[in-house]
Write a structure and sequence with these properties.
single chain, about 200 residues, alpha+beta, CBS-domain, four-stranded mixed β-sheet, three-stranded antiparallel β-sheet, 8 helices, globular
Length: about 200
């Protein structure tokens, strides 16, 4: 019995975007590279973010700080036998700090994000064609790209979710309309959509 490919019965999908600018989230919330570890913890926790771009004084992206980065640092400190951040935590909550409770950790707690962040920066220009953006994400196996202007300043962020939100079902029509450069719709397929979803779900 011949096996039927399920994808043959699925409608085509279209990427409803021309360029990176159509895909991106504009003016993403970011944090300065000069911020300390505890400032980053407060920043991510208060906003409910899992990660955020790290920028320099000129607004250029330098990397990404994530909860994973912070947890790894906390784990390293605990493995070294230090009660990491007790003084800062107690001060924030109005609790007394026992003598020697925070011995030897001030230097680490004041470490800037330049020493803690993931330094890989993958950027595209706002005019980059949408298919190239997706191909770059898949090729690099990343689930976010920075969008920068001509001066390299961060102006947007494209995540796997942003791409998925732009997918539309292609409804068949009686009249075939040729694809032109002015069309906002880029042909897509279920295989590419599944790859993007898997990349995002593994983050």
């Amino acid at each position: 019995m011949k096996r039927l490919d399920r994808t043959q019965s699925l409608p085509a999908m279209m990427l409803d975007a021309r360029t990176a600018e159509d895909l991106m989230t504009s003016n993403p919330v970011s944090i300065r590279a000069s911020a300390t570890l505890w400032e980053a913890v407060t920043f991510l926790t208060d906003r409910g973010f899992s990660a955020a771009p790290v920028i320099d004084e000129a607004g250029r992206p330098l990397g990404v700080i994530s909860r994973t980065d912070l947890l790894l640092r906390l784990h390293e400190e605990q493995s070294a036998g230090r009660s990491f951040g007790a003084a800062e935590h107690n001060e924030r909550h109005g609790n007394p700090t026992a003598p020697g409770e925070d011995a030897g950790i001030g230097e680490t707690s004041e470490m800037s994000l330049r020493d803690l962040m993931t330094k890989g920066v993958f950027c595209v220009a706002p005019g980059t064609p949408a298919p190239q953006v997706v191909a770059r994400m898949l090729g690099l196996r990343v689930h976010r790209l920075f969008v920068v202007d001509e001066q390299g300043v961060l102006i947007g962020l494209i995540s796997a979710v942003d791409v998925l939100q732009k997918l539309r079902l292609s409804m068949p029509t009686e009249t075939s309309v040729p694809t032109t450069a002015a069309s906002a719709h880029t042909p897509w397929n279920w295989s590419s959509a599944r790859r993007i979803f898997r990349a995002y779900s593994k983050r």
